[in-house]
Amino acid sequence: xxxxxxxxxxxxxxxxxxxxxxxxxxxxxxxxxxxxxxxxxxxxxxxxxxxxxxxxxxxxxxxxxxxxxxxxxxxxxxxxxxxxxxxxxxxxxxxxxxxxxxxxxxxxxxxxxxxxxxxxxxxxxxxxxxxxxxxxxxxxxxxxxx
Length: 146
Known about the structure:
By secondary structure, the chain is mostly helical. It is 77% helix and 0% strand. The protein has helices at residues 2-7, 9-14, 21-87, 90-99, 116-122, 129-145. The relative contact order is 0.03.
């Protein structure tokens, strides 16, 4: 074999070695792997963008619902304030005190008119003086109780 190499040394050195096919295949696989990686990355980015847009839309709907609820609560609050003012009005309280409770203003003088038969009975000669006062007080109380 040595002899053959010595004889044909010029021939074997002149020829270039063939390029193996594996390196070309590796390049194609490498490019395909990068393509798959980029495709997955772009897909994830698109999914994240769509998901964020859905969240933004959901939050917008919730904000609109809360604004409507706030307006409704403000309207109810205004109605309650109006009712509170009406219930606390001095004219209404005075009317209720006079009509329902029988109260009078301090400056107001209210006279009690006794029926004629009570007046004549109190002036009868057989009643003692102390009894007249009691009868008058009782008559006033009975009128107030009505």
